[in-house]
Amino acid sequence: MTFDLSPGAWLAPAVDWLNTNLHGLFAGIAAVIEAVLGGLQTALLYPPALVMIPLVAVVVALLLGWRLGLLALIALGFCFVMDLWEQSMETVALVSVSVAISVAIAVPLGILAARRPRLEAALRPVLDIMQTVPPWVYLIPAVMIFSLGRVPAIIATIVYGVPPMLRLTTLAFREIRRDLIELGQAIGATPRAILLKIELPSAIPTLMVGLNQCILLSLAMVVLAGLVGAGGLGAEVTRGLTRMEMGLGLRAGLAIVAVAILLDRLSRAALERGRKG
């Protein structure tokens, strides 16, 4: 008698068991993600592009400065001129939802890991595996559980985006000067006040690096997610590759660069403004 010890021998039955016994849970998760993503995409695509682009540029200029407003105008205008406006907004929605969920998971867990070395030690090998496994591999179990579409793309993107944000959050809170925390304790500040008024502002520079990495990795994963029917610019890159259309692939690739630069600069500026405010 021989025993099959390959990963597929136990992974496939495990996925079958999950689909059979936790179908309702996965259906609920998929419904929530689809509702949030659908609402955001509708909001982004409802105004005509020629209205949305200057509107976003003006709002960004008023809130974050005229240079970023000009950057928003150029980046979004480029996506429109390349005839990839709808796909670009779909990608922005996918990345925004993925990054928001990744940050919501990684930041609290990173803060907890910074304060509990045993938890950090337990998480380290898990994060090593998550960052070492090729990104497209995450799509396989996600598709097996959630089928084709946008939901498995977001799930895989979250798994890929959490590790750098979590690691840098842990690092950020470990590097906070101890004397600042002791000063807050000496004046009678509550743990919550110390976290919000001392620790979080001190950690912002490192957190911005983590957010930048999370956004860029999420964009890279969204491109790969075009293989499973997630839509957006990733689907255009995939279409250009399969049809050997260099022009389409190049246009979609440049649009991804424009979206990446815009999201990175806006997130950095927003966090910096929040820190100063």
Automatic annotation (TrEMBL):
Domain ABC transmembrane type-1: 88-267
A single GO cellular-component term on record: ATP-binding cassette (ABC) transporter complex
GO biological process: choline transport; glycine betaine transport
Subcellular location: Cell membrane
Recorded topology in the membrane: Multi-pass membrane protein
Keywords: Cell membrane, Membrane, Transmembrane, Transmembrane helix, Transport
Transmembrane segments: 20-37, 68-85, 92-115, 135-162, 207-228, 248-266
UniProt main location, coarse: membrane
InterPro entries: MetI-like, MetI-like_sf
GO molecular function: amine transmembrane transporter activity; carnitine transmembrane transporter activity
Matching Pfam families: BPD_transp_1 (PF00528)
Gene3D superfamilies cross-referenced by the UniProt entry: MetI-like
Family statement: Belongs to the binding-protein-dependent transport system permease family.
Protein name: ABC transporter permease subunit
Species lineage: Bacteria, Pseudomonadati, Pseudomonadota, Alphaproteobacteria, Rhodobacterales
